[in-house]
Amino acid sequence: MKIKGLIFDLDGVLVSTEKNHFTAWKKTAERLECDFTELDNEQLKGISRVDSLKKIIALTGTNVSPVEFDELLIFKNEIYLESIRELGPADALPGVVELLQQAKAHDIKLGVGSSSKNANAILELLQIKDLFDAIIDGNGVSAPKPDPEVFLNAARDMGLSAAECIVFEDAESGIMAAKAGGFKVIATGNPHVAELAHAYVETLIDFNLSIYEESF
Ligand SMILES: [Mg+2]
User: Fold this and answer.
1) Residue 133 known to be catalytic
2) pLDDT 10s per residue in the chain (216 long)?
3) CATH at 100
4) CB 165 within 8 Å of CB 197
5) 86: buried, middle or exposed (CB in 10 Å: 19+, 13-18, 0-12)?
């Protein structure tokens, strides 16, 4: 099958904002007099902001009122948003820029399918936004992953069918979303989900377009 489009999840695939989330949660936990560690942070991967805060509060063993809870959520997001403003071109994950440029040179369309409401801003900071033909973010879908909507909308905006595209993902919900939409999906950066996808590459440096065209 000739591949005509590549669709990328954002966080964990094109960029990692894990450290930004960690720092923001650590400062939020400090307000609860909780010493939040990297190990604690492992438990927050792939879960929502509300559920993450619930877990941190459980760690402290204290109670917070609904008003305080909402304040803490806002506090965390403000610190996070402040910190991602410092992202730059050097923060794109290994192999990203090379793959995007290689694809462009072969007239392959490029898309982003992300749950992040900050996707456009982050792509701009990385200085890769102009390379994409379609960007669907958390503001442009009604059903979150594992619903395939985000990827189907990206393919539609690229003028392609799911069968003509490959999706790159690092999370289980995203892999399930891509499969549900009829896409081939390559997992990257997260060996725990490798088995769920059609193929796995540790980083995008390891992805070779011509090999995959033959095997799919
Ligand atoms: Mg991700």
Assistant:
1) no
2) 789 999 999 999 999 998 899 999 999 999 999 899 988 888 887 677 888 999 999 988 889 999 999 999 999 999 999 999 999 999 999 999 999 999 999 999 999 999 888 899 999 999 999 999 999 998 888 888 899 999 999 999 999 999 999 999 999 999 999 999 999 999 999 999 999 999 999 999 989 877 766 666
3) 3.40.50.1000
4) no
5) exposed
Q: How far apart are CA 144 and CA 69, in angstroms?
A: 23
Instruction: Map tokens 């609860």 to a residue.
Output: 32
Q: Look at residues 28, 53, 84 and tell me which one is the last residue of a structural domain.
A: 84
| Owning domain of residue 192 | 5-16+89-215
Q: How far does residue 62's CA lie from ligand 1's centre (Å)?
A: 31
Flag whether the pTM goes above 0.90: no
Between the CA of 117 and the centroid of ligand 1 the distance, in Å, is: 13
Catalytic annotation present for 11: yes
